[in-house]
């Protein structure tokens, strides 16, 4: 990895951990950070915009991207495809920009195989009660789907060991500050400074 | 390592990097941080206080501590002994306090062998010119000693690879913020979170 490359930051964790909220707030506070827009085959929710929240694609178009190797990671959740287009991410990183992915756990593990030098942050709720509460509050799906999400979320907590960092999302401003500190620290890490006093800082 | 243990933070780097200034400023901003006072056989400089800046000991007393295994690390510089008393450091860490050591490179490498779970931060000057300027400005020693210090400092830059982080000390407030971010990030590191959702956060 060349020194001028940006960091690939992967925010992940179980459903209900609040990673979406943290990601939005982080982007608001860090205008230089680039959000990687995912592709999905699911229908847009009210207010979701093409190219901003997701690239909305048909199942067939999504499968085409998959076959062409155009996805950095992909997964199927509740009958829908989700994935990260590879090209834009790599271009931003080469341009020295930090890129943030907010993705599900299985996707994060795929990214880790391809980009082990990424920064993998696991977001967790402060307790299992809070997790259950948050998943219920979202309330856009029937109880059966909610229960399925909840049991998946509890099972997924075990994946924490695959990550570099864990941030407990008890209060959003504190959690955001922790993530910002992680990015600052990673940029100071010796493993990312191969050319000290040669190629600059 | 139990979860409630504090972090052992080792600030090190070549002479003239400004690690003393950073350490003082960090302690001023972080009242919970504990400074590990070193022992030395050198004579006090004007204004230096026993038990605050150093524990001043005779060569014989220092050698006694060495023989009793009471030092976490030690080194001889310019004919004087310097070392870190082990007992106080371990007691603070067990009490959950973060302890900071500001020590020379050879000492840091000894600490790393005994406390690999410590956070090893290498402080460097922004350039070799600045390094030379700072060593000259200190001006408490003859030119011959200064030249010896300078060539040692340049040689010592190669030890950066033994550390976890490198912080370039160009502006003190920025460098202090980076160190604080490193400590925050380390506390979020998965390797320090063995009991997530069991023993607490």
Q: Percent of residues of chain A in beta strands? A: 15-25%
Task: Give the SSE string of chain A.
Answer: EHEEEHEEHEHEHHEH
Distance between the termini of chain A: 15 Å
Q: In terms of per-residue confidence, which ranges of chain A show pLDDT below 50 for 5 or more consecutive residues?
A: none
CATH topology category name of the domain at 8-36 and 97-192 in chain A: Rossmann fold
The largest sheet of chain A is: 5 strands, parallel
Largest interface: A-B, 29 and 29 residues
- Oligomer state equals homodimer
- Rg calculated over all Cα atoms of chain A: 17 Å
Helical stretch tally of chain A: 7
Helix content of chain A: 40-55%
Number of strands of chain A: 9
Q: Report the mean per-residue pLDDT of chain A as an integer.
A: 89
- Level-1 CATH class name of the domain at 8-36 and 97-192 in chain A: Alpha Beta
Largest sheet of chain A, order of strands side by side? 2-7-1-8-9
- Architecture per CATH nomenclature, i.e. the level-2 architecture of the domain at 8-36 and 97-192 in chain A: 3-Layer(aba) Sandwich
Shape verdict of chain A: globular
Structural class of chain A: alpha/beta
The CATH H-level superfamily of the domain at 8-36 and 97-192 in chain A is: P-loop containing nucleotide triphosphate hydrolases
